[in-house]
Amino acid sequence: MTVPExxxxxxxxxxxxxxxxxxxxxxxxxxxxxSLFAGLRExxxxxxxxxxxxxxxxxxxxxxxFTRSVQSLCVTMWRR
Length: 80
Known about the structure:
The protein has helices at residues 9-42, 46-78. By secondary structure, it is mainly α.
């Protein structure tokens, strides 16, 4: 039987922050999918479709990049 590792308070907080960031990214992805569908349905031409696609991509990419950055910072902290 293995003994679970004891984590410091800062590690626990970092884990919670990373989990919240990933949850936010998942919610943003769902919201972007709905927004893309609505934007493509309401678009009157290719420029409006491109704008809807770009906005939906931005809604996903920005939280994802932020989450990966926070995760990298936390991993660096854990390795110390």
